[in-house]
Design a protein that fits this description.
This protein has 372 residues and is α+β, with helices and mostly antiparallel strands. The chain is built from seven helices and 24 strands. It is found in: Cytolytic granule; Cytoplasm, Stress granule; Nucleus.
Length: 372
């Protein structure tokens, strides 16, 4: 039986009736050595059927042939999938995907209770997390998410339970436990809402970790999360993002509907962007980007995000006579045109001495200023 974690067989569909097994083998062996190719030409009706070679495919009403191509190595099959899907063979754009065995057909778990498992060691497998969470109740599904090109773990996975209480107990008791060489993180999985019917796709694509992690420098650990028009709080952001890694700082701007989350590592931030972008939080679809590489997240705006408004519109100042100046309230970047005066507050900064303010009278808490 084929190893489901490292599949070697591809489904190739939407083929021209002039395509032969020999032609398919000639094309795919240019990518890697092929073990076999089996062409299926009969498709009597529209239903899921098991083919004569032991793989399952959803039959369509058309009579287009399809085939299964088996490689000797998983890496060659993955490379062929990336290279051949969408290519034209004899004038038809072929569809290439992983072939699935009948036993691997997944049941509908959309109404089950899903647990996110983060900070997984590279060597941890699906069977490992299934065994680790099995004591908490009956598991309907479990998987470690892997890069389809390299076959390597992305460092997180999901476990689904039939019973909500079992899932809750797993989250509470497994968070911080050692699995392999790392302490894992657990939380409720954030699931993407289904696309509304009769609504055209907005063109957004599922983000890939490899793309996101390279969009900003390795020193950048800050995530922008926007689009939460109500209910935004630090607790909500910590609950949403803590599964992806250690959080160093959170800044929330409820009136603007966005926040900044600074992680301890660039990779954790990248995982957070990939996993949370496009999901529903408090019934709002959120967008996540890299924040600017600034130690002061209150001045950060997402890279590639422009509101089209002057930066000074986002901050306002409040006089603080006891400190001899004014402080900036978070909301945007303060104006730069101001002459520095010793002992005065300039743009919210008093160099040399960091002061933590808690000014209930003006509704400010947690601002950092520096004495000049």
């Amino acid at each position: 039986m084929e190893d489901e974690s490292h599949p070697k067989t591809l489904y190739v569909g939407n083929l021209s009736r002039d395509v032969t097994e020999i032609l398919i083998l000639q094309l795919f062996t240019q990518i890697g050595p092929c073990k076999s190719c089996k062409m299926i030409t009969e498709q009597p009706d529209s239903r899921r059927m098991n083919s004569s070679v032991g793989f399952s495919v959803l039959q369509q009403s058309s009579n287009d042939p399809y085939c299964f191509v088996e490689f000797f190595e998983h890496r060659d099959a993955a490379a062929a999938l990336a290279a051949m899907n969408g290519r034209k063979i004899l004038g038809k754009e072929v569809k290439v995907n992983w072939a699935t065995t009948p036993s691997s057909q997944k049941k509908d778990t959309s109404n089950h209770f899903h647990v996110f498992v983060g900070d997984l060691s590279p060597e941890i497998t699906t069977e490992d997390i299934k065994a680790a969470f099995a004591p908490f109740g009956k598991i309907s599904d479990a998987r470690v998410v892997k890069d389809m090109t390299t076959g390597k773990s992305k460092g997180y996975g999901f476990v689904s339970f039939y019973n909500k209480l079992d899932a809750e107990n797993a989250i509470v008791h497994m968070g911080g436990q050692w699995l392999g060489g790392r302490q894992i993180r657990t939380n409720w999985a954030t699931r993407k809402p289904p696309a509304p019917k009769n609504v055209q796709d907005n063109g957004s694509k599922q983000l890939r970790f490899e793309d996101v992690v390279n969009q900003s420098s390795p020193q950048n650990c800050t995530v922008y999360c926007g689009g939460i028009q109500s209910g935004l709080s630090e607790h909500l952001m910590r609950q949403t993002f803590s599964p992806f890694g250690q959080i160093m700082e959170i800044r929330v701007f409820p009136e603007k509907g966005y926040s900044f989350i600074r992680f301890s590592s660039h990779e954790s931030a990248a995982h957070a962007i990939v996993s949370v972008n496009g999901t529903s939080i408090e019934c709002h679809i959120v967008k996540c980007y890299w924040g600017k590489e600034s130690p002061d997240m209150a001045k950060s705006v997402p890279q590639g995000f422009h509101s089209g408004r002057s930066s000074t519109e986002h901050f306002k100042t409040v006089p603080v006579p006891s400190l001899g100046g004014r402080v900036w309230i978070p909301g945007a970047v303060p104006a730069r045109s101001c002459d520095a005066q010793p002992g005065k507050l300039q743009h919210g900064w008093l160099p040399d001495t960091v002061i933590r303010l808690s000014l209930s009278s003006v509704g400010i808490s947690g601002l950092s200023v520096r004495r000049t």
